[in-house]
Amino acid sequence: MVWRQDFMARFRPLSTEEAMMWDEAAKGVRFGVLCEMVATFAGEDEAELRAATYLKNWVDMGMLAGCRTR
User: Fold this and answer.
1) What is the pLDDT of residue 63?
2) What is the mean pLDDT of the chain?
3) Cα–Cα nearest to 68, from 26, 38, 37, 35
4) Whole-angstrom Cα distance, residue 32 to residue 47?
């Protein structure tokens, strides 16, 4: 993943799971559906926490700065 934060280019490799979640989130897929998708990688017990962790990391790293609702 490449993004810009404070006029600096940033790079971070993504796992297959995280890349899939990023792609679907960018399309506007709801968080519950994203959790279901992550469950295919992590199992149902861990899916919500893993999905929330990805989302938190994207915000903390400046990869995600906002969202829109439909």
Assistant:
1) 82
2) 87
3) 26
4) 10
Residue 39 makes CB contacts below 8 A (sequence gap 6+) with 46, 47
- pLDDT, position 69: 67
Low-confidence ranges of the chain (pLDDT < 50): none
The reply to whether the predicted model has a pTM over 0.85 is: no
39: left (phi over 0), alpha (psi -120 to 50) or beta: alpha
Give the whole-angstrom CA distance, residue 31 versus residue 52.
9
- In 3D space, the residue among 65, 61, 62, 34 whose CA is nearest the CA of residue 49 turns out to be 34
CB-CB neighbours of 17 under 10 Å: 16
Distance, in Å, from the CA atom of 46 to the CA atom of 14, rounded to the nearest integer, reads: 18
For residues 41 and 5, what is the distance between their CA atoms, to the nearest angstrom?
30
